[in-house]
Design brief:
The structure holds 2 protein chains of 2 kinds. Chain A is an all-beta fold. In chain A, a hairpin with a 2-residue loop joins strand 5 and strand 6 (54-57). Chain A is built from no helices and 11 strands. Chain B is mainly β. In chain B, strands 2, 4, 5, 9, 10 and 11 form a 6-stranded mixed β-sheet that branches. In chain B, strands 1-3-8-7-6 form a 5-stranded antiparallel β-sheet, with no helix packed on it. Classes of the chains: A mainly beta, B mainly beta.
Amino acid sequence: EAQVTQNPRYLITVTGKKLTVTCSQNMNHEYMSWYRQDPGLGLRQIYYSMNVEVTDKGDVPEGYKVSRKEKRNFPLILESPSPNQTSLYFCASSPGLAGTYNEQFFGPGTRLTVL
Amino acid sequence: KQEVTQIPAALSVPEGENLVLNCSFTDSAIYNLQWFRQDPGKGLTSLLLIQSSQREQTSGRLNASLDKSSGRSTLYIAASQPGDSATYLCAVEGHRDDKIIFGKGTRLHILP
C-alpha cells in the first residue's frame, strides 16, 4: 500500500531534550516536506527536500533540522525543543515533477507536546 | 511572499444543498493548486489537484476551478451530505521557490 508513515504518532517531552520524528514514504517520491499545524495559523511548511541531499527552508524553519540521506526517509530533528514547538506535525511527499502532476500525500501526523 | 486566503472560515448548510468554497492567492506564479480534506484530529486527504495550465478538475460530486490570472480557485460540492463535514484546505506550490503555502481552511458542517 502506497503510504507515508510517521513515528511516533504521539510524543510528550521536556524542554531541551533532543528528539527525532521519522518520516518514510514507499512511493519513490522525490519531493518531501514537513509541516506544522497550529490553531489559527493553519499548516506551515518547515522544510522541504527536492531530492536526496537537497533540503531547503520553508516558512518556519527556526529550531528544526532535517536530513535527506535516502530518497524514502526525511527525519525531522529538534535539537533543543521548546514549548512553542508544541504542535501537530505532518510529513508529506509528492512525485516532485514540478509543472506536471505533483499531488501531495500526507502522513497521519505526530502530536508533539514539549513541557 | 505568497499568501493564501480561504473564505469563509466556517460554513453550515443543510444537507442536499450545493455549495462553493473559495481560495485566493496573491502570487499567480504557481505550478499547481491542490484541495484537501481534513477530518478532526486526522491527516489530510487529497481531493483534487489542478495544474497551472488547467481550468478545472472534477471528481464525483466535487469540481475545482482555477483562474490563475485573478488568483482564485473554487471548490464546488454538489448535493452535500453529512459525511462531507470536515475542514477543507487549499494549497499552492510556488513556481519561484517550490514552497507550498496553505490557506487556513474552511470548516464545513452539513446539517442533517
